[in-house]
Design a protein that fits this description.
Layout (H helix, E strand, L loop, with lengths): L1 E5 L4 H12 L3 E8 L17 H14 L3 E5 L1 H17 L6 H20 L4 E3 L4 E6 L2 E6 L8 H4 L4 H5 L1 E2 L7 H10 L21 H9 L4 E4 L5 E5 L26 E6 L4 E5 L5 E12 L8 E6 L7 E8 L2 E11 L6 E6 L2 E13 L32
Parallel strand pairs: 1-2, 1-4, 2-3, 4-7, 8-11
Antiparallel strand pairs: 5-6, 8-9, 10-11, 12-15, 12-17, 13-14, 13-16, 14-15, 16-17
């Protein structure tokens, strides 16, 4: 099988490529240039496509004895990931850039080009497992729960899964590092990247301020009373407690958290922690790994890359997914992905559009923009704003 191995310059993709070679595949390595100015990234920065990363990727290809190329996808990445990230925050939603990159870059732009060049699959260092099931290729959790990345791959279509190769899904990360050292790959001890890859210094709030500018507004409680001011809604996240700079203390003396964000009205709503609990959600743009379920689906729902998957009942309704959580989940926000599991198998995913709070709302709630209709019922039309976590 002809395999295109995507080498990021890290340890995972290098070992994944090595295993593809060991399996007898005809492997060619490619490094994706996603930054318009890789030389501007400081040495050791946890950003994408630094010169150091490109050099490490080339060295890994040399050790493996496979051809090496660099594909410039900086403009596509800017449009589909970076601009999307900024636009989602500007609209008050919670984007996941890793998920978007997998969906639109690695398993769309790269896979499409690879297939056009005659490759059968794209190999990456993601921690997930692919299993050939009765209805086709299935995506399953990695055996190492601490490194499982099935959540950020949950948006892939069956066709994209058919063109993917994840050799590391059955191996703990510590073993991958030992294997890299044994193979003479120079990246065995290279740190993992945890931040948004295109924000090299990790200051997401500062990056957003620079992109979106200042838009001062009010911080209000659930009754609509002004309790503070802010310089831009993009500086807040649902569930945030620190840095609110509230001028009016809560009557009960309890801490207050960000409950909701309305960029159009330039308003941030704060309240007690229990108001962050969500009992149900409604998702749009569903992706099913096979036919959509004909009736209620008992499953587990996960709304964060490293969050717990909780028991839930999901129901497909046209271009929407209704999910009732059997236990409340705290701080779910529009824009997040909800990935549904049957055991270790991913059965589908969607983008959260609205939520139903588990706790009863405040007296008026006219101040907030959270929807309180149960999924499947029509809530008041959103103005493009939502909450983000």
């Amino acid at each position: 099988m002809r395999v295109l191995a995507a080498l990021s310059g890290g340890v995972d993709s290098a070992v994944a490529a090595a295993r593809a070679v060991d399996a007898g595949h005809d492997v060619t390595a490619v490094h994706l240039a996603l930054s318009p100015s890789p030389a501007s990234l400081r040495a050791g920065a946890r950003g994408c496509c630094s010169v150091e990363d490109a050099r490490d990727a080339r060295r890994a290809a040399d050790v493996l004895g496979v051809p090496f190329y660099v594909w410039d996808l900086a403009e596509r990445f800017r449009e589909d990931v970076v601009e999307d990230f900024a636009a989602e925050y500007a609209a008050g939603r919670t984007p996941n850039p890793c998920l978007r990159c997998n969906e639109r870059i690695k398993f769309a732009a790269v896979l499409d080009r690879a297939r056009a060049l005659g490759f059968d699959a794209v190999c990456t260092g993601h921690y997930a497992r692919l299993v050939d099931g009765p209805a086709g290729r299935e995506l399953h959790r990695a055996l190492d729960p601490g490194k499982d990345q099935s959540y950020v791959l949950g948006v892939l279509t069956p066709d994209q899964l058919a063109g993917a190769l994840f050799p590391l899904g059955g191996t703990p990360k510590a073993d991958v590092r030992r294997e890299a050292a044994a193979r003479g790959l120079g990246v065995a001890d290279k740190p993992d990247s945890h931040d948004v890859c295109f924000i090299a210094d990790g200051d997401t709030a500062g990056w957003l301020r620079g992109r979106l500018g200042a838009a001062p507004g009010d911080v209000v409680d659930e009754e609509g009373a002004v309790v503070g001011r802010h310089e831009g809604t993009h500086g807040f996240t649902v569930g945030q407690r620190r840095g609110l700079r509230l001028g009016v203390p809560a009557a009960d003396g309890r801490p207050r958290y960000v409950l909701d964000i309305s960029p159009v009205e330039r308003r941030v709503v704060v309240g007690p922690a229990e108001r962050l609990d969500v009992a149900a959600l409604e998702g749009v743009r569903p992706r099913w790994c096979g036919p959509a379920p004909a009736g209620p689906l008992e499953c587990r729902a996960q709304v964060r890359a490293h969050g717990a998957a909780v028991p839930a009942t999901a129901r497909a309704e046209g271009d929407r997914v209704l999910v009732r959580l059997h236990a409340p989940v705290r701080g779910v926000a529009p824009g997040q992905a909800v990935v549904l599991y049957d055991g270790t198998r991913v059965v589908g995913s969607a983008t959260v559009d609205r939520t139903t709070p588990a706790a009863p709302p405040g007296r008026d709630r006219a101040a907030g923009r959270r929807d309180h209709a149960a999924p499947g019922e029509r809530a008041p039309a959103r103005d493009g704003a939502g909450a983000r976590a």
